[in-house]
Amino acid sequence: MKLTTMLISMLCLTIALQAQLEPGHQRNIGIPISGAIVSGADFLELGMLKVQVVDIGSRRILSESQVGVKGSFQLAAVPTGFYELRVIGQAGDVRHSQGFQSASIGFLQIALSTRPRQGTQNSISAIRLMHQTPKAATRELESATKALRKGNRLKAIEHLEKAAAIDAENFEVTSNLGALYLQEREPYKASEWLMKAHRIDPVDSVNNVNLSAYFANEGQFDKAEEHALNGLKQDPNSVRGRYMLAVALVRQGKNVDLAKTRLAEIENQFPPARNLLHSMMPRE
Fold first, then answer.
1. Top CATH class, 126-279
2. 74 and 36 in contact (C-beta within 8 Å)?
3. pLDDT per residue over 66-86, tens digit each?
4. Rounded to whole angstroms, how far apart are CA atoms 216 and 222?
5. Beta bridge mates, 112
6. Whole-number Cα distances in Å, 255 to 164, 181, 244
7. Span 211-217, mean pLDDT?
8. Which of 107, 103, 41, 49 is nearest to 74 (CA)?
9. Most buried among 64, 72, 81, 272, using CB within 10 Å?
10. Residues of the chain with CATH 2.60.40.1120
């Protein structure tokens, strides 16, 4: 659910899962491992991440934890040894991987360098950085994420609306409400929230790409191009940013070669890009 793809990101409560251990390993159990993801993802995106301890030899998952609202996770103890620690995205992609020694580590901090299927956002606004989310709004965000994990988009919107009533200047709330309303095919409601999020943080890549999708849907392809370019300034590797830029250019009938280049870069990652690119090829 940056609730992404319409580029949507999500958050949720921490859920520590019991480790699956082989009987012979029970004698040398280490210590539980707590930790936090300290950068590289926003509130709603965090909740769709998992942290895993993986046995390097057998590739078995020995312990797994859902990431919590502020990036926290809690892994069950595993046998003493050297393992791979992985952060897994919503689509099953490996966001981060590192080796660690379970006997000596009780707390880990992980800095993610990229978004799932996206590049790195270079900066966020000072207003967004300084914003403090009230506990009541955080609870609604958590409830929204749980609803999204169950596939209940309307319930998630309900909780996000409640969060917005408590914390009207929360970027994650406003941006994700806009993204969800886009998915619900309610463009006018989407634009209200996306534009509010844009005022809070005008440089955010995902929100700009969502605005590009909104304006493209409305036939305002010049504005769609503008927001796609703004999104790509912050995240040059954004798959959907490149796709939306290509759509905007094609529909305006300009820079078609650039549009083809952008589509060719992502056609193996994003089927709509491949379909659009093939539709532009000369027919025999």
1. mainly alpha
2. no
3. 887 678 888 888 887 777 788
4. 9
5. none
6. 40, 31, 14
7. 94
8. 107
9. 64
10. 16-111
